[in-house]
Amino acid sequence: MARSPLRKKMHLATLLVLKLKLMEMVYHLFLCMVVALVARKFNNKCKISYAHQLLDKHNIRNLNLNKVVFDSDVQSIDNCRMDRRAFTKLCHLLQTQGRLKASRNMGIEEMVASFLHIIAHHTKNRVVKHQIVRSGETVSRQFHAILKSILRLQSLLFAKPVPIPEDSTDNRWRWFKGCLGALDGTYIRVNVKAVDRPRYRSRKK
Q1: pLDDT at 29
Q2: 173 φψ region: left (φ > 0), alpha (ψ -120 to 50), beta (else)
Q3: What three-state secondary structure class fits 169?
Q4: Tens of pLDDT along 29-55?
Q5: Inter-axis angle of helices 108-121 and 84-96, to 10 degrees?
Q6: Per-residue pLDDT for 204 more than 60?
Q7: Residue 99 region, left (φ>0) first, then alpha (ψ -120 to 50), else beta?
Q8: Residue 168: left if φ>0, alpha if ψ -120 to 50, beta else—which one?
Q9: Who's near 134: CB < 8 A, 6+ residues apart?
Q10: d(CA 202, CA 36)
């Protein structure tokens, strides 16, 4: 028995609706795959950039240490108030007799260079942490660790004053017989008569 035109139209409409739903499902599935691929690619980029950031920090620290200490004796004296040979000996002394240990992320040389730079130039914590790319807490902790090591070397690093002997014939020191301490280069505040003041003036401001 032949189908009526109305039933044929209804059948075609049903097939068309099913086809449209199937195409919609395929479209949503394709869209989800694209979003997943983009998210995965974005995560991979983030990981790579983070690794590059860590590498850049490491390079900056090495370059800063070489610039401050190891480039030349002139740079080392300007920044740390000692040449490279004295700096290396101090690091060895602090490590062997001062019981100073390197941390997981910071070596002995970098710790000592930061410490000397701070005390030589009275540099603030906020300035140093940007120079060596470290946190302020790390700078403070390593500074106190080196300070404790130096205090352990008190008997080796600190010179013991010797009194001026009674039989001293040196024209500079024979007037200070029995005195304890160094006067050379030390400025003492005294009140002098106006007539004699030019004899005691110096160029120190």
Answers
A1: 82
A2: alpha
A3: coil
A4: 888 887 887 777 666 554 545 444 555
A5: 120
A6: no
A7: left
A8: beta
A9: 61, 106, 128
A10: 79
CB-based burial of residue 138 (10 Å sphere; 0-12 exposed, 13-18 middle, 19+ buried)? Answer: middle
Q: Scanning the structure block, which residue is given the tokens 């500079």?
A: 172
Three-state helix/strand/coil letters over 128-162: HHHHCCCCHHHHHHHHHHHHHHHHHCHHHHCCCCC
CB within 8 Å of 138: residues ≥ 6 apart: 106, 129
CB 138 within 8 A of CB 102: no
Q: Which pLDDT score is estimated for 1?
A: 47
**Tokens standing for 26?**
């395929």
Report the pLDDT value the prediction gives residue 61, as an integer from 0 to 100.
Answer: 77
